[in-house]
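Model it.
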Amino acid sequence: MKLVRSGLGTVDEQLGGGFLRPSSSILLSDSPTEKRMFAENFLAAGVKGNESCVYIDFHRAPSLARSHFKKYGVPEESSLVIVDAASSQAMIPSSERYVIKDVTDMMDIRRVVQDAFEEHRPKRVIVDSLEFLVDRFPHEEALKFWEFVNDLSTENNSVFFTLVTDWTLERRELASLKDGADTVLEFRTERMGSILLNLVRVSEIRKVEIENSKWVPFRFEDLTGVVTYTPRILVIGSKDSRKEDFISSLCSRSIVDGEGHLSEGRDRRTIDVSDIETEVLGVPGKESFSATLRLFSREMSGVFLVLNSSSLEDIENGRRIVESDFGRVPLVVIANRQQIDGAFSEDEIRRRMKLSEDVPIIPFDEPGDGKASEALQSLLKLPDDG
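Modeled.
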């Protein structure tokens, strides 16, 4: 059986190379998320690859759906087939070939969908979404419609996606739906520091055990479509601040460049935050900090500023950095070397740096003292594991 790539390399790795053809996949979340974005991206790739594709849309007027696909580089006059179940609900005329005139009549829904399959034999199919039917029909009837489309997809050698919000189904119904699908992809949306993450992971593959599948952040870019990225945390500090001790305490996995070494004064490591691989970047000074913040501004979750608490010069340099434009990126100050005689207190550091009360100052003396974990929780507003 041929493998069809999802469009996101990290997800394809979790799938073992891609989706089987034919196969059915459940795109599942427990709240409204951007799973539609993932489905649209997959369908747009098929259209651009000259595959016949069908989008069964119960929620949006076709003009709105086609305008969305245009952002993926799919022209409005493309071969994309939209089964229009929205126009009749708004009592507006439709220019689509396949129109469900009565969304309360399951026979009408099935007839229009079957006509689209018979005339176009699609290779990629989306149902958006199952909860629309669950809200309007007995659950058993809605699930039988899913089986109906799944059978049509199998006969046509299609890759079939269904969007589902899990709270709309009873537990046994959801379990039955999962059992009938080849793959389950989970979606969630959460905030990590300054950025809102859209996340996806492969949680189930039929007859294959999946362990420790990490969440993959993704976002939309015009014409490019959906892309993955890595959330980043920036650590800035002078050589005297011993920021390397803080970074080592925060995370242990190093990343080196293509030649096997790092630039002087820089450090790159990774840490798992809520099963999301996050990169930690250490930079030595204000110029490096500004350039890195500009480069990764859309992916920067937060900044640690590490200070030598016994150095007035270090604290003054820290003040100048804080006065630069952080935007909305959260900041936590790490007061290192607090054990040295003559080190400035947290209150004195706050006064000299003119820090507002909402900027945490975390004392840090030795790796392994638990302060790095406390600082991470403070930066990203994570729950305390203790």
